[in-house]
Amino acid sequence: MATAAVDRVKESEIDPIDVTRAELYAEDRWQEPFRQLRQHAPIQWVPESKFGAFWSVSTHKQILQIEALPKLFSSDWRYGGITLAAESDVLLPDEIRQPMFIAMDPPEHTAQRRTVAPSFGPSEVAAMKEECRQRTGEVLDSLSVGETFDWVEKVSIELTTGQLAKLFDYPWEERHKLTEWSDYGGDIEMFRTPGMMSTRNDKLQEMGMAFAALWQQRIANPGKDLVSVMIQSDAMNHMSEEEFIGNLILLIVGGNDTTRNTMSGYAFGLSQFPEERAKLEANPELIPNAVQEIIRWQTPLSHMRRMVMEDTDMFGPQMKKGDRVALWYISANRDEEVFDDPDSIQVDRENARRHLAFGYGIHRCVGARVAELQLITLLEELAKRRLRVNVVGEPERVPACFVHGFKKLPVELSRY
């Protein structure tokens, strides 16, 4: 493969930095390690970590280049999939690999993505707008101004779980099960914590059984929901149990964890930059751009993983067939070569849309428009009510290197 199409990077100038350590994210001190990597080792071999050895890629340009080469850098579940949780060629104790279309290469990936993608198209998302606005307004109107509450529980989880229930036409009174299943599906720490893998398997089996019952109902009475769409697709209507569960994990985690943690990132982030919050309050027309900026700043999924399919030195360092590669979106979105003063929130940042939080290339998030709809709607409904979110205590963060988010965030609402 020719090397002229990519920029070769310098060899690592520093000792390996293991950025998979959960405490970096629990304590919100991941910024400096990634700054060191971008400056001194944009592509670095990490021989030891809780998740094994891997190449760490931390710069925006190199991640784009790797994402554009899916034949060389595979996402396939057979090689461990899209996170660092699994090994490439051996199963961990109690591990059950679940195929999902984000963890497939073409042509399987192409066929299954084409099945789901129309449900998230422009006209479909436009049709969701009024219901999303009404539901968001009801949640906000249920909150008391001046009283402390947990933003994660009362707003972020409630709104995203509600949207997910609508997409699946899942029983409304049982919608909070979707949150629990999402938490288990996205928690890669369980893969390496003794005893937790079997617990995770039990929860995902519970999810699979619940959706299998929905599947049978929709066979008899199909609708426009995601389960009905899969049933009516040649690419997805003969899925194995493992593949069915895998795609449910993808759609539920993708539709829940990511948007909910960006909603929490909005509440926490703008409280750290009151001048930017004031600018947004005075200029609500900035809301769509501010949403992109908050997605960039929060980056709700820290990394994606690929596997090298053949030896290559196209980037400089020698990557071997079978090596795992971690693409650190959370670092790329703070890359000084792309974003000016990247650790700050700038609601009018001109290039905010260059963020990689939705990925890039064939695996770019299929539900990005729905995420943007929910976030824009939340900010518009807050602005309509002239509500300001004030953080009044220390947040509790997710202690993991995959889902980047908040467990709890104490806030009070005020008027402006």
Automatic annotation (TrEMBL):
Record's keyword terms, sorted: Heme, Iron, Metal-binding, Monooxygenase, Oxidoreductase
PROSITE patterns: CYTOCHROME_P450
Signal peptide: none
Similarity annotation: Belongs to the cytochrome P450 family.
Keyword Oxidoreductase among record annotations: yes
Pfam families documented for this protein: p450
UniProt cross-references to InterPro entries, sorted A to Z: Cyt_P450 (IPR001128), Cyt_P450_B (IPR002397), Cyt_P450_CS (IPR017972), Cyt_P450_sf (IPR036396)
Protein name listed in UniProt: Cytochrome P450
